[in-house]
Specification:
Helix 1 crosses helix 4. This protein has a domain of about 100 residues. The chain is built from 8 helices and no strands. It is globular and about 55 Å long. This is Metal-dependent phosphohydrolase. One of its GO terms (molecular function) is hydrolase activity.
């Protein structure tokens, strides 16, 4: 495992939330694609770019990311600790206190959920079956994110 790859993927993992890098895919994939373009432009090794791409594209994919390379799993776990506080009981209280003292979240919850709600508004098709759907339904009144059950039952073929 290389800390360099964890650092790069952690630093770049939310590029897909920005207007400059948002395309037509899930924000995680848009971000992974943007990071890949950036690293290619700086002649970064292809094998390392692939790990960074996987770490970013899968950072919100529970039960998938944690089965991949260590760098991919660490970015996944780090993002979830940072945003939702998941698995904080596995981190020493002193490290948490020291980190928050150096890097206070300063409105992270509101800014992050608003950024995700904007993605849901712009690209509701990418929210199907994800936590993005929950945020969109809560913070974007009137947003119509298709329900997976409705899509299956409404498929145009007979079963």
């Amino acid at each position: 495992m290389t800390s360099e790859l964890v650092y790069l993927a952690s630093l770049l993992h939310d590029l897909g939330l920005s207007e400059d890098h948002a395309a037509d895919k899930r924000f995680e994939v848009d971000g992974a694609d943007a990071a890949s373009r950036f690293l290619h432009a700086h002649d970064y090794p292809e094998a390392k770019i692939e790990i960074v791409w996987d770490a970013i594209a899968l950072h919100s994919a529970a039960d998938i990311a944690d089965r991949r390379e260590p760098e991919v799993a660490l970015v996944h776990f780090g993002a979830h600790v940072d945003v939702m506080g998941l698995r904080m009981d596995e981190i020493s209280p002193q490290l948490i206190d020291d980190t928050l003292a150096l890097y206070p979240p300063l409105g992270l919850k509101k800014a992050f959920t608003e950024a995700l709600a904007e993605v849901a508004r712009r690209k509701p098709h990418t929210a199907i079956g994800t936590g993005l759907a929950d945020i969109g339904r809560r913070l974007a009144p009137g947003l119509d994110v298709p329900n997976v059950c409705d899509l299956v039952l409404g498929a145009s073929f007979e079963s």
